[in-house]
């Protein structure tokens, strides 16, 4: 199995001699590993695993199987469904950077929530992620801890025909939410309008409300200003265009 896996890993390298040199292994010895005639010492095996970014399971399991473990959305079962939307979301559709978002509060319908989120693409991963922190006063209002760890949320983004959708959760799968946004016309083309739905049981108050996302780019000054204003806000404290898009006087349908 190790020889088969090593042959599979090496097929992307046009020169076996150069690959052997990078691994620090004699070419003849490398060929013996591939053919199954010899087995590497633990230190050499560790060097091979680190080079190809795999683990010692290559001794026992096909590397194709190892490569899909832990990749649920991009794994074989969901790759052409949820995985497709994750892979297709490019920066032109939804850029990386900071976003200011505004929505009506779920827990206090007389107030709105202003928040900051960060969208990024991880190196080497065909996915777009989002992270941020719930406002302290919103957590306190619900009697929840307001530590940084308790307030953090993370999610993954996916695209579809006319917008972007993402699923967000707090740590330990607390308070899931589903978010949908579509770009709206603006001077800088940096606004998205949609809705957010929270996963609570029936009878627990509002579960869906409009939401606006404004792309701030990587401007730390604007991001910090938004962070300082995060939390509950009255309607007249909202930015004019945010208030216009949210249409506070019109029921959400």
CATH superfamily of the largest domain: Quinohemoprotein amine dehydrogenase alpha subunit, domain 2
The percent range for strand residues is 25-35%
Give the oligomeric state of the chains in this entry, treating copies of one chain as homo and distinct chains as hetero: single chain
Distance between the termini: 57 Å
Structural class: alpha+beta
CATH fold assignment of the largest domain: Lipocalin
Share of helix among residues?
25-40%
Count of the separate structural domains: 2
Average per-residue pLDDT, rounded, comes to 87
Please count the beta strands (DSSP E, at least 2 residues each). 9
CATH class of the largest domain: Mainly Beta
- Identify the strand order in the major beta sheet: 1-2-3-4-5-6-7-8
SSE order: HHHHHHEEEHHEEEEEHEH
Indicate the low-confidence ranges by residue numbers: none
Number of helices: 10
Radius of gyration: 24 Å
Describe the sheet with the most strands. Answer: 8 strands, antiparallel, barrel
CATH architecture term of the largest domain = Beta Barrel
Structural shape? elongated
Describe this structure in words.
α1 crosses α3. An eight-stranded antiparallel beta barrel has the order 1-2-3-4-5-6-7-8. With 253 residues, the chain is of the alpha+beta class. The chain has ten helices and nine strands. The protein is elongated and about 75 Å long. It has two domains: 68 residues, 434 Repressor (Amino-terminal Domain); 161 residues, Quinohemoprotein amine dehydrogenase alpha subunit, domain 2 (Lipocalin).
